[in-house]
Amino acid sequence: MAAFRDIEEVSQGLLSLLGVNRAEAQQRRLLGRHEQLVERLLETQEDAEQKLRETLEAEKEVVQSLLDSKEQVHKRGAELEQLEAELRKVYEEDTGLQASLSQLTRELQELRELEGDLERQERELDEDTTVTIPSAVYVAQLYHRISKIEWDYECEPGMIKGIHRGPRVAQPIHLDSTQLSKQFISDHLWSLVDTEW
């Protein structure tokens, strides 16, 4: 019986040892799992921090892009306003030019009508002068035959020069129209014409 008690004590000791060993093993297992959880938690935290940094960087880029876009929109708005002002100015100039062109077209039409009237009047005048008025050459020849004066057309301005070839003797003509009246010059020239036919 003592042996049985010894065995029972040993069994109890073994059981308690086993219990301690089991608790230790379970504790080791729990510590292992705890370490794994801590490692996974640290990895997750690192991943979360990395993702947070990436998200912040992406947000910074988006904000910068938004600011750049806003500045571009503002700049484009200013350019658009400038272009609209230039377009209004060009439109006003175009309207002015069209009005000027319209006025010039009317004036040109009036000038063409006047030109047509003048051409018609010239034709009528030519027809009238060919019938009733002798040519200028004929008048000059007739005047030369009557007055017998040969004019010096190359004399200086204001001077009247020529030669009167009268029936008796040739007489030079030299008159200064700046010092003599037109009446005197006319009377003097008519006095040279021979009245005897």
Verbal overview:
The chain has 197 residues and is mainly alpha-helical. Among the domains are: 60-133; 135-197, Ncd80 complex, Spc24 subunit (Double Stranded RNA Binding Domain, 2-Layer Sandwich), CATH 3.30.160. 78% of the residues lie in helices and 9% in strands. It has a 3-stranded antiparallel beta sheet with strand order 1-2-3. Strand 2 (159-165) and strand 3 form a beta hairpin. It starts with a helix and ends in a 5-residue tail after the last helix.
Short description:
The protein has 197 residues and is mainly α. The protein contains three helices and three strands; from the N terminus they run ααβββα.
Furnish the topology, listing elements before pairings.
Elements: H1 2-132, H2 136-147, E1 149-151, E2 159-165, E3 170-176, H3 182-192
